[in-house]
Amino acid sequence: MNLKKHASKGVRVGCDIGGTFTDIVLAMPNGRLYVNKTSTTPDDLGRAIVQGLGSLIEQAGVSPGDITEIVHGTTTASNTILQKVGARTGVLTTEGFRDVLEIGRIRTPTMFDLSWSKPAPLSPRRWRRGIRERIDAQGRIVTPLDEAQLLDEARALVDEGVGSMAVCFLNSYINPVHELAAKALLQANFPSLLLSVSCEVLPEIKEYERTSTTVVNAYILPAMRTYLARLRQDLERMGVKASLQVMASNGGMMGIASATDKPVFAVASGPAGGVAGAVEIGHLGGDADLIVFDMGGTTAKASIIAGGQPSLTNEYEFRDGISAPSRFVKGGGYVLKVPAIDIAEVGAGGGSIAWIDAGGLLCVGPESAGATPGPACYGNGNDRPTVTDANMVLGYLNPRALAGGSLRVSPELSKAAIERHVGGPLGLDLLAAAHGIRQVANVNMARAIRAVTVERGRDPRDMSIIAFGGGGPLHAVSVARLLGIRRVIAPIMAGVFCSAGMLSADAEHNFVKAVLKPLAGCAPAELGGIAAALGDKGYSVLASEGYQPEDATIVLAADLRYVGQSSELTVALASAHFGLEAIEQLVRDFQAMYHQTFGYSSDEPLELVNLRVSARGRSKHRLDFATCQVDGTALQGEAGTRSVSFAANEAPVATRVVPRAQLTQAPEQGPLVIESYDTTIVVPPHCSAHADAVGNIIIDLQEQAA
Fold first, then answer.
1. pLDDT for 335-361, tens place per residue?
2. How many domains does the chain have?
3. Is 165 in the same domain as 251?
4. Cβ distance 478 to 348 under 8 Å?
């Protein structure tokens, strides 16, 4: 019988499902942390969570009932869109606006790519129906809602097998009366039909963006509900009855009720946890400006922290394949007008497959070997080389096992795959082919970082990289050198850092109210009333999730633009008290932000588009990176020496391999390979590494000899 070593209520768990591994962190009330990496189970994503959590419960010596909260980053929503396995989704919209999804912005992401095809709408045209009703831009009813036609069209769609319905009427953001009436009729007549109503999902101007966001919500709604319900049942069967929170795309947590009603706010769920954790690490180290670099098994992601805060956007596009977002390149994906961390993503991860294109060029990704069958070295039947196989051949990775010995590997299988599919066709020796794979992956990842720095007017050379994920510390120095960056941080628990970051996040819910008036004509009392009403909604939702008033904070912001423009910038408000001085400060802040974003500003009058409220709940038990202690087994690794190839034109170097636990605050000169349970940190020649007071590994890059 297992004796409980630390049995205590108040245990929290963070879990992140990746393309290759599912990462879990268990936090004890005393700050001790236990980590686990389990191979992702694509056929049933929740099974890996149950398996990994079961191992951690045994390791920590707690009972399932001691767990009080689970924070979860899920790929269910994004995978549903990528794999096109969402619900049969119908759309009821204003007559004459049936084709809004096809028309979109009439843009293409690349001007001269004649092979590009617009993504097919998630709701086919035959399932989109126009309804007789009309509300004008001032919110006045022009044509009453035709309730009989609404029910006839809905019945026809249900008969065709539609199970989820999006209701998006023109100008409902200013007057939702018709949408709310339609919702009541549909609920009364079709109780099993899942509904997404645009005035509840996104009550904002811009018909295409509002329709697209609402349709995405309807499309992923059944999958998200089914997944979360099954996960809760699986957890309860093992005795875990904890509160289940889901990471939102903006880096905050949302309760399961919100996640099952509005899953569109959690499409970019997983990566957000890592950014939330990076903010905390930055605060501890005095780094207000950081490049966040997260490399997993399938993709690599980049974002920036500026002034101690993550870079946020109120709109992004979810795309197939490579996604390197820019404020000036749009039209290539499904628009989601929801708050999200501004992340660039490329299909370059440890499992990304190397291949030769028709022109004889070496390519890496975006196709991934995933968790099953995984890289060739896993021995599960894949014979094509991946980035992990290249790292194995070059000597960066443990040649016997990964993930603390739980995953046996074979370097011979990596060698065979690279020689057959890359070295042979290109006439390269084994090491040159492996370096080629790694270099292509590094360049792709550097592109993602440029997308959030150079394309945003930021010089990456002025910033440090914080690198995490299973592959982040393995590649970070090489990527940093491509960009002229001189400092790399591998945070504690780097290989499972997204899961740890989730435990440091606040709950967050966002509310918006359209205003659409010249700022000069807005009455302060009216704006104050809108802000108060939005704040009350925020307090109410936080209270329903168990947060006390003293743990709740309301943050107000305004969407502003010059009169006549079609896009806006979101400017934070220092106070909810709308006096003349506050409005004048709002104008000054907008001008400064506009100039920073676009390089110029104007004295033209401003228009207030929306008021926004972010309601944040701070957990009394949130993870504190300054005081937490990682279980010693997670910091262990092999000690010794192995041959490592750091450059294609140089001989391999006999390189020290040390466990992460042995690194101190005294600098160690590279070359060096630092091993731990969850990741491998590579310190090439002309670099030094040391541990800081928290336990992060700091790598300083030096000038290379000519």
1. 888 888 888 888 788 889 999 998 999
2. 3
3. no
4. no
Task: Give a yes or no: residue 25 inside a domain.
Answer: yes
Do 175 and 130 have their domain in common? yes
| Residue tagged 């092979």 (tokens) | 115
What are 150-177's pLDDT values in tens digits?
Answer: 999 999 999 999 999 999 999 999 999 9
Same domain, 128 and 43: no
Question: Which of 40-54, 549-563, 692-706 shows the lowest per-residue confidence on average (mean pLDDT)?
Answer: 692-706
Query: What residues contact 268, with CB distance under 8 A and at least 6 apart?
Result: 78, 249, 316, 318, 340, 341, 343
Domain boundary residue among 617, 634, 656? 617
Q: Are residues 35 and 109 in the same domain?
A: no
**Separation CA 111–CA 616 (nearest Å):** 41
Using CA of residue 369, residue 493, residue 305, residue 216, what is the dihedral sign?
positive
Strand partners, 12: 27, 69
Least Cα distance to 580 among 623, 531, 637, 520 occurs for 520
- ∠ Cα 509 511 515 (to 5°): 165
Of the candidates 564, 591, 617, which is a domain's last residue?
A: 617
Residue 260: CATH number of its domain: 3.30.420.40
Tokens 């709408």 map to which residue?
Answer: 121
173 and 153 in a common domain: yes
Pairing verdict, β 67-73 and 11-17: parallel
Q: Do residue 137 and residue 255 come from a single domain?
A: no
Q: What is the pLDDT of residues 496-515, one digit of tens each?
A: 899 999 998 888 888 999 99
Give the model confidence (pLDDT) of 89-100 as tens digits: 999 999 999 999
The answer on 198 and 100 residing in a single domain is yes
Look up residue 233 and give its two tokens: 């049942």
Q: CA 53, CA 55: separation in Å to the nearest integer?
A: 5
DSSP-assigned states of every residue in 229-274: HHHHHHHHHTT---EEEEE-TTS-EEEHHHHHH-GGGGTTHHHHHH
**Residue among 109, 95, 561 nearest 334 (CA):** 109
